[in-house]
User: What shape does this take?
Amino acid sequence: MAPRTVGAVRDLLAVVGATPLVDHHVHAAFRAAPSRAAYGDALNEADTDPLPAGVDPFDSQVGFAVRAWCAPVLGLDRHAAPDDYWARRTELGEDEVNRRFLTAAGVSDWLVDTGHRADDLLTPTELATAGGGRAHEVVRLESLAESVAQAGTEPRAYAAAFGALLADRVRGAVAVKSVLAYRAGFDVDLSRPSDAQVERHVAAWLKEVGRTGSVRLTDPRLIAFGIHEAIGLALPLQLHVGLGDRDMDLRRSDPLLLTDFLRMPEVSSVPVMLLHCYPFERQAGYLAQAFRNVFLDVGLSVNFLGARAASLVARSLELAPFGQVLYSSDGCGPAELHFLGARLWRNAIARVVGGFVADDEWAAADASRVVRMIARDNAVRAYGLPATGS
Ligand SMILES: [Zn+2]
Assistant: This one.
């Protein structure tokens, strides 16, 4: 790096290091120490099978990033060997591991999706206590629908029961989230279904639940119903986009498939948060420019791209207006991921934006302002969070 670039990057690292992040999409950390196999599986997002024996999960961008950036937090040298890393982690225990990584993440507000693997994870309050800062809940719509079905409801009573449960659960929550991408994909009819349609689809779903014993909601018309009910409450809507495990069809999670949905007048009234986005971050950036209520982040993939994270963060700063880009880690399970998301993102944005300053494309003051917007100010505004972080 030229000396001018080094100086600009260093200045921006100081700015972003001093700015507490709003992690606007995250899950909690492990409650108890995982087995080494479970830990290894957590370092692979896409494969749903356990890693075969002989495959070292550390032999990946995220694995090398853990050894480079997480090892020092545990008191080891950078690039510690996997066996040494695991021994130290085990010696410290999960409470201490959580405390160290969550604190080191430098996050003031955690917006926690509570709809996934809640049993083996901390509660949002416990997460915030371990890491400092505040927790805010994000309610997952499909989980609510499934609990209505599980509680036993007549098809005709479903719409009212869902609406009542939603109204109750969002009290104190800051947003709702849909995993439509996982359950059906975006190439479906996302118009609001009529009451008669809802009743008919619920009847078919409940019949299926009785037959298979599985309550998992995959009917896009009922997912669309939940989304429109939530929009009626004027809460920000988070949508999983792009990278996820292979249970989902990545081809059907291209956010451009949401264009008709985003054109609906009622949808334009709420912030729509496109989460993760990789490898569709450019499509998401286009949508952010096309629709003033669309926001995007590149969380999750920042961790999995490791040393290549700066390229992704650079692409997130192409078409999207800077007021519509957000930070998230999407950490889930090992607290390394909560920390690493923050560390790699801070490194990447400083490097990318520092390059713009060194090239005299951006003024240094604008660079600092935009970095703070993405780190926290945009999320504070979009979610209506109290402005002062704890
Ligand atoms: Zn997530």
Remarks:
- The pocket of zinc ion is lined by residues 25, 27, 113, 330 (CB under 6 Å).
- The chain has a mean pLDDT of 95.
- Residues 3-31+105-383 form a domain with the TIM Barrel fold (CATH 3.20.20.140).
- The two ends are 36 Å apart (CA to CA).
